[in-house]
Amino acid sequence: MLGANAAAYTPGLIDLPDWRTGSSSFDAPPNVRRRHLRVVESTSADQGATLYAADEQSIKAVQRAIKNQRVMRATAGRITALLTDACAEGDPHSLESATQLFSFLGELLITERPAIFLLDNGNFQLVLRNSEREQISLQFFGNGVVQFAMFALRQGLPMARIAGQDSADEVRAKIIEHGCQHLIV
Questions:
Q1: For the chain, domain boundaries
Q2: What Cα–Cα distance (Å) separates residue 110 from each residue in 64, 116, 134?
Q3: Who's near 121: CB < 8 A, 6+ residues apart?
């Protein structure tokens, strides 16, 4: 039995465009040209349905996940470009550092690609900063060690600074502890 907000499904056929020619392939065999679909038709009860807060949060979470995937692809492209250039020019580079950086960013669910640099020593560095001169700078040594420097504004106080070396998990905790998580977007 269908509930008040249920949608009705109608079977239907659709002509798919032919990706090879950019047009519909009417000369193709029927089993290639047509696909059976279930078309969702909203019922009258759905017409005035409102979007609940939980639904909005779900939509925002999905949108953020899609942005994260795009940013991670762009990040992988930047790392690959830096590694390719280093290999071509014979410059030092650390695959372990690159892998550690990529893994670190993958756990943060970023939605904007940070600045990524290949340093003269072959390690990768990432920099997250905002227009107020707050900044997180991380250098990945590749053996589980991350060197960090963070600059964060404090209300009524001079800019707070913290620097050191620690594991990736501890650095993530320090980012939150020192109020720099807003730089991770």
A1: 8-47, 53-183
A2: 8, 14, 17
A3: 92
pTM: 0.68
Pairing of the two strands 23-24 and 34-41: unpaired
Closest CA to 166 of 184, 144, 137: 144
| CA distances in angstroms from 5 to 2, 10, 44, 133, listed in the order given | 8, 16, 8, 50
What pLDDT, in 10s, does the model give residues 130-145?
888 899 999 999 888 9
| Residue range 108-124, pLDDT digits in tens | 888 888 999 999 999 99
Buried b (16+ CB within 10 A) or exposed e, 122-136: bbbbbebeeeeebbb
Contact by Cβ (8 Å): 149, 137? yes
Tokens representing 117?
Answer: 């640099």
Q: HEC string of the chain?
A: CCCCCCCEEEEEEEECEECCCCEECCCCCHHHHEEEEEEEECCHHHHCCCCCHHHHHHHHHHHHHHHHHHHHHHHHHHHHHHHHHHHHHCCCCCHHHHHHHHHHHHHHCCCCCCEEEECCCCCEEEEEECCCCCEEEEEECCCCEEEEEEEEEECCEEEEEEEEEEEHHHHHHHHHHCCCHHHCC
Which amino acid, 181? Q
Residue 7: half-sphere exposure toward Cβ, Cα within 13 Å: 10
